[in-house]
Design a protein that fits this description.
Layout lengths: L4 E9 L3 E4 H8 L4 H7 L3 E4 L6 H16 L4 E7 L10 H8 L7 E5 L5 H15 L4 E10 L12 E11 L4 E11 L5 E2 L8 E2 L1 H21 L10 E4 L4 H14 L6 H18 L6 H12 L7 E8 L3 E9 L9 H9 L2 E2 L2 H9 L8 E3 L8 E7 L2 E6 L2
Parallel strand pairs: 2-14, 4-5, 4-6, 11-12
Antiparallel strand pairs: 1-7, 1-8, 2-3, 6-7, 8-13, 9-10, 12-13, 15-16, 16-17
Helix pairs in contact: 3-4, 6-7, 7-8, 8-9
Bound molecules: acetoacetyl-coenzyme A.
Acetoacetyl-coenzyme A (CAA) binds next to α2 and α6.
Length: 390
């Protein structure tokens, strides 16, 4: 069909708390510039005790269902690598919190930081089958590594929600994609752990290798060439990773771009993630929101999306910004989400990081801390409780 399909609305949410990475640098006795400029991260979002992937997802998606209604949404997909249950999909909790209709499918997707891209592609295929339907795709994650590990400064949390529809107001997706899958162990989280394990240097090499191979596949499949692309949105575990990846792409695409040009084209997509930290599945879509919110006049511009999930799967696809998109953005709300966070100190952060999930069947209410619309109310009988914030 020739009906364009893509992103009709997009919104992101983050946590109520924030930690300046200088705090971690001071505790570790290292130069904060290693974080601020070496990895390109200034702050990271930290979840309050009543925030998790479900509340972040519902907070990101609420403005979308309020604007567009719920009637045409017959599928909600939650993409996450920080699942809160081994069986039940986080999407089912989110479905209730958002007040979606009972005649709707709800499912969770997993493949490290990549799965939201799979969700977006599957959603586009579903809309192509029935252009009257809309699919709600939500990427949501809380990135957690061990204290004192190399990954500690690359934690963070956030969610991005997208309404996938025919005749989209913001981005029309182009059908050709480039793919790459390889079974490797660069980053993973065994079932018994609530922090991820990572081989940092291996993971950077794996990311670059996967993007290179997905790019070559995209070119063989007939995707637009490097020179036909105006902006690039990368998965951003830390923002300098996007810069490294883009320089690598410039080399393999044999494109003539200076470092200054490379940085200029990427910079608007790095602004939000520098403050949020790694949000895994959400990070490339928060990069898109950052680009849309921070560049004027993107009408008709082509954006390439370079998605990577450790383990690993990569996918590269493109989309074209739709005329009139700017009146559909939520720039003020996104600025408020970032500026509204409360700064915490190291002692507070350490206490939160040390907290573990109770494993008994007793009642464990969560204190009310969040400034969001939804909260995790605690655990009772091993069941997670969620509610709209009173
Ligand atoms: N001022 C400025 N820059 C400084 C500096 C200073 N004082 N001190 C160091 N730097 C620079 C270093 O030169 C280095 O830059 P280059 O890479 O350009 O040489 C940079 O800061 C980082 O320094 P190190 O390499 O020494 O840092 P590290 O080894 O302690 O940690 C890391 C870096 C491995 C990325 C670590 O943060 C990590 O393990 N993060 C988690 C894994 C990760 O994010 N991997 C990314 C690919 S995997 C993926 O994308 C999936 C996912 O989401 C996890």
């Amino acid at each position: 069909s020739s009906t364009p399909i893509g992103i009709h609305d997009i919104s992101f949410a983050t946590t109520s708390l924030v930690l300046d990475l200088g705090v971690i640098a001071t505790r570790m006795g290292i130069d904060p510039q290693k974080y601020y400029s070496g990895i390109g991260q200034v702050e990271m979002s930290v979840p309050a005790r009543d925030e998790d992937i479900v509340t972040l997802a519902a907070n990101a998606a609420l403005p979308i269902v309020e604007r567009h209604g719920r009637d045409r949404i017959r599928t909600v997909i939650v993409a996450t690598e920080t699942g809160i249950d081994q069986s039940k999909a986080a999407a089912v909790y989110v479905h209730r919190l958002l007040g979606l209709g009972e005649n709707c499918r709800a499912v969770e997707f997993k493949q490290a930081c990549y799965s939201a891209t799979a969700a977006l592609q599957f959603a586009a295929a579903m809309v192509q089958r029935d252009p009257q339907q809309q699919v709600l795709v939500i990427a949501t994650d809380v990135a957690r590594y061990d204290l004192q590990s190399s990954g500690e400064p690359t934690q963070g949390a956030g969610a991005a929600a997208m309404l996938v529809a025919a005749d989209p107001a913001i981005i029309a997706l182009e059908p050709v994609t480039g793919l790459y899958t390889e079974d490797i162990m660069d980053f993973w989280r065994p079932n018994h752990r609530d922090t991820a394990l990572v081989d940092g240097k291996t993971s950077i090499r794996a990311y670059l290798h996967a993007i290179e191979h997905a790019w070559q596949d995209a070119q063989r499949q007939g995707a637009p060439g490097f020179e036909q692309i105006d902006y690039f949105c990368y998965h951003q575990p830390f923002t300098v990773m996007a810069v490294k990846a883009h320089r690598h792409l410039v080399k393999i695409a044999a494109a003539a771009a200076s470092s200054a040009q490379v940085d200029a084209v990427l910079e608007p997509s790095l602004i939000y993630n520098r403050q949020v930290g790694n949000s895994y599945t959400a990070s490339m879509y928060i990069a898109l929101v950052s680009l849309l919110d921070n560049v004027a006049q993107l009408d008709g511009k082509r954006i390439a999306f370079l998605s990577y999930g450790s383990g690993c799967v990569a996918e590269i696809f493109t989309g074209v910004v739709q005329p009139g998109y700017a009146s559909h953005l939520r720039t003020a709300a996104h600025a408020a989400a970032l500026q509204g966070r409360t700064a915490i100190d190291d002692a507070d952060y350490l206490a939160r990081h040390a907290q573990t999930q109770p494993t008994d069947a007793g009642a464990h209410p969560a204190p009310h801390e969040t400034t969001g619309h939804f909260r995790y109310a605690g655990l009772s009988g091993n069941k997670r409780l969620y509610e709209a914030t009173p």
